[in-house]
Amino acid sequence: MIRKLFFIATTSILILSLFAGIVSALDTQTGVTIKANLENVRAYAPAAQSAGLNYAVDGGVLYVGRPGEWRKLATPEGVIVGAVAVDNSRPGLLYIGAANELAVYRMDSSRAWLRVPLSDKFVGGVTSLAVDKLNHLLYVGTDTAGVFRLRDVGSSMIAGGHHVLSEPVVQVATDSTGAGLVFARTPSTLYRGDNMGLNWSTVENLGSAPTALAVVNRYPATVYVGTADRGLLTSQDGANWSLANDGLAFVPGSRLSIDAIAADPAQLDVLYVATSYLYGTTTVHQSPAGIQQTTDGGASWRTLVSQTDAPVAELLPIAGQTGAVYALTLASRQPQPIGAAPEIVESAPVAATAASGIRSDATTLAAWVVAALAALALGYALVSDLRSKAAKPATAPLALQRQPVRQR
Hints:
This protein is α+β, with helices and mostly antiparallel strands. It has two domains: 2-28 and 361-402; 33-351, Methylamine Dehydrogenase, Chain H (7 Propeller), CATH 2.130.10. The protein is 15% helix and 38% strand. It contains three helices and 29 strands. The strands form seven sheets. A six-stranded antiparallel beta sheet has the order 2-3-4-5-1-29, with no helix packed on it. A four-stranded antiparallel beta sheet has the order 6-7-8-9, with no helix packed on it.
């Protein structure tokens, strides 16, 4: 009897677990799609290492993946995503900024979103995010309220500073080396934050309006600033600047504009810039001059492509693959392959399955298969046991068997 009850209880538990797992797996796959290419990229967070996962904001929707395979990530209801950043020093930590409210959201390894409101005195949205991984700081650029500083303490995020600016923040960038530098770029001005963003000042010695910004976290950190007509400038303290135009075809007297800068997170000496020439005084005309690459931190540049169909708005590097980058232009926000970047074969979005390249459910599926087989085995053993007992012939009690048979 004990053996029979054990078989029944164990089999029931396994079958119920299997049923719950199947329901959960089907539920998590509902509405998830995989698509080959993005179409309207507004923000991008490249992987920290080769073959890692990138995050992109495509038309207000968050995606994760790599070129040729992007999976939609669920975000809080009603949120139009405007910016994204990751903290690769703490796995699973992801930040997004809302384009339709002054709030950021944080997702940790539990996959739950934490909403962090920034201010109730302004109306606007988030335009850019930057993470100081060493000090666990998040800098938030906005379109109406300047720059916010938040400290991530794990269980929550604490407001730690706010610098109001008169223009929308186009971009924020920070070092993670301990120097405590952070930069915010507006359409006309570059601002430097010292002491981990507690003190702000205007950078006044660029000689031209800033057009692009990047901070590379080598030691010491190096700041790259593109300008409207002086080409590329670099600095290690945000105060003293040097030209880095060798190979960019900058001619004194010309107006060489740096339209975009991107650094390869997996190769700190590899960067890409997109350039164009500006002509005219009253009416300015922009002529794309190409996309260049450096493998020595900006000491020299070589051309990847000599001309683009339209001025470049942003560059999306492929981590760890030298010479591979995608371009977004003023005419199209769909990534265009440059250099060694592979062409994307267009295809219709398909439902995500366990066999997709984003391998999140393969192990879970295998576990449920094993559970199913175990349940079948126990069920078979239980049925066999019951049948064997039912097949035994009935025998008389031992006391009756020992009684002698009387003859009449």
